[in-house]
Design a protein that fits this description.
The protein has 256 residues and is mainly beta. Helices cover 12% and strands 55% of the residues. It is built from 3 helices and 10 strands; from the N terminus they run H-E-E-E-E-E-E-E-H-H-E-E-E. The protein has an 8-stranded antiparallel β-barrel with strand order 1-3-4-5-6-8-9-10. Strand 3 and strand 4 form a beta hairpin. It starts with a helix and ends with a strand.
Length: 256
């Protein structure tokens, strides 16, 4: 469904450009960002909720797009996105820590509108707004469990202080101690929406610098079906990836 929606969005905007007889440019470039990341609704697998800690990660990517009169942009590309969350709480004088690291290959598709008269003064600094969506493929996952700074297995962590009432179910899912591949905790594909605001300025003929504040939210449940376990209060809420931060892009426009 999401893939078909992206195709429909791209086709609609392309036809709009064609009907308006707008001058078109193609642009390519690279992007670098630093995002604060989190997991909305902690996936604790029946254990006590832990406190969220600051979690930030860099991201890099390549972009390619199509612009009409340097004002209406359709942009896609690929990003190497690192998401996840760190947790830590002291429970009965024992420090419990958990670190979730998720590496995705993300394919975004967005529409961006540049404000102001870009036709008569293409090289002026202009503000812009963008909205879009993405599909992200899980490339690597690693979850680290620690008690008082010592790394332990998933099962040993959940046995701590008898805080998980379904330790037998956890042990069965984990194969007795720990998963061979932590990717098994999560869905292999995530999809979501993005929104950004920022500024664009040209530093040479055709070469534009973009500075934007970009955020994204995963719409699907990131937990694998077998690991959609109720929390310590007997309730299950779907977990979602989320990120927000600053992105810097350098794009070259052909035919400006």
């Amino acid at each position: 469904i999401m893939k078909n929606s992206f195709k429909f969005l791209a086709l609609t905007i392309f036809l709009f450009f064609q009907n308006q007889n707008l001058q078109a440019q193609v642009f390519v470039g690279g992007d670098a960002a630093y995002f604060l990341t989190t997991i909305v609704n902690q996936n604790n697998y029946g254990f006590t909720d832990l406190d969220y800690e600051f979690t930030g990660n860099p991201t890099f990517g390549l972009s390619i797009g199509y612009a009409g009169f340097n004002k209406h942009h359709v942009q896609t590309g690929v990003k190497f996105l690192k998401l996840g969350q760190k947790y830590s709480s002291k429970l009965d004088n024992v420090n419990h820590s958990r670190n979730v690291e998720l590496n995705y290959i993300m394919i975004p598709l967005s529409y961006k509108m540049v404000f102001g008269d870009t036709e008569s003064n293409s090289y002026a600094t202009r503000a812009f707004f963008s909205i879009g969506g993405y599909v992200a493929l899980l490339n690597r996952a690693e979850t680290t469990w620690s008690l008082d700074g010592k790394e332990v297995s998933l099962v040993d962590f959940h046995q701590s202080q008898n805080r998980n009432g379904d330790i037998l179910g956890i042990a069965q899912l984990a194969g007795g101690s720990d998963l061979e591949d932590d990717k098994d905790h999560f869905e292999s594909v995530d999809f979501g929406v993005t929104v950004s605001v920022g500024f664009r300025t040209f530093i040479t003929d055709g070469l534009a610098l973009n500075l934007e504040f970009l955020g994204g939210y995963g719409l699907g449940d990131m937990n694998a079906e077998d690991w959609r376990l109720k929390d310590s209060s007997g309730v299950y809420d779907a977990s979602h990836n989320a990120f927000a931060g600053v992105q810097l892009g350098l794009h070259y426009y052909f035919g400006l």
